[in-house]
């Protein structure tokens, strides 16, 4: 339980603020006031060997740390009181709830180290280490993951020769002799965003290629696996509007997802990725 800190009180050094048989103690932790028991601070299983046990042991022969106490009886500890409630809960029953954000975990770790709570400090450090390793794995995954961008025309047999299943996305908005329908720009962007999403999620199972080599297709998905062309989805059609032809770009999302799923059936963990370095440039920006 916390209260408002008393104002204008000067701490007075006392070498023995606790007396034999005293059951309760009042604490001022950086301005936050707590009431707890000597049992919690000294005699609980989880308090053994801690800084608090040394400070509040009632035996003058056992107490190894002098304490400061103001004239209202509050023992002063010059630490941030933000996480002291968590410290007390741990001393009571050996459990505590870890904070949800990294900064609070780091703060709790520092307090646990100061109070010599080894198990609590270890749990905090383990969480921070695990998060660090996950971030490192994500960075390493990003370094390995770069989408090949084909800028020169490649024969079909080149993609057929790749042993890993391939999703080839070709688009060329300028390859059009008619005007586009009103929504075509938005649907082209939807296709591009879907390609970025799929390549980000499934690049360990499928090989994604962005083809900007100037093929005839304005927007086209091609799927390869097992040394053959599995399917192709053309996303363009010619429509008539106000007695003139227009090009319409479509977004057949469900069909694209289905063909991508079918492509994963040809995945083999032992197949090495092909080397496009001599035939293409690489997109160094991570897909959204």
Topology:
Elements: E1 11-14, E2 24-29, E3 32-37, H1 38-43, H2 51-56, E4 67-70, E5 74-77, H3 84-93, H4 102-114, H5 118-144, E6 147-150, H6 156-160, E7 166-171, E8 179-180, H7 184-202, E9 207-211, E10 219-225, E11 228-234, E12 236-241, E13 244-249, H8 253-263, E14 281-283
Parallel strand pairs: 2-5, 6-9, 7-9, 8-13
Antiparallel strand pairs: 1-4, 2-3, 4-5, 6-14, 7-10, 10-11, 12-13
Keywords:
14 strands; alpha/beta; 288 residues; 24% strand; disordered C terminus; 8 helices; elongated; six-stranded mixed β-sheet; single chain; five-stranded mixed β-sheet
Radius of gyration: 33 Å
Oligomer: single chain
Structural class: alpha/beta
Shape: elongated
Helices, by number, come to 8
Main sheet attributes: strand count, strand direction, barrel closure: 6 strands, mixed
| Distance separating the two termini | 47 Å
Mean pLDDT: 80
Number of strands: 14
Strand content: 15-25%
Kindly report the spatial arrangement of strands forming the biggest sheet: 11-10-7-9-6-14
Note down, in words, how this protein is organized.
By secondary structure, the chain is an alpha/beta fold. It is 34% helix and 24% strand. The chain has helices at 38-43, 51-56, 84-93, 102-114, 118-144, 156-160, 184-202, 253-263, and strands at 11-14, 24-29, 32-37, 67-70, 74-77, 147-150, 166-171, 179-180, 207-211, 219-225, 228-234, 236-241, 244-249, 281-283. The protein has a 6-stranded mixed sheet, with helices on one face. The protein has a 5-stranded mixed sheet with strand order 1-4-5-2-3. It is elongated, with a radius of gyration of 33 Å.
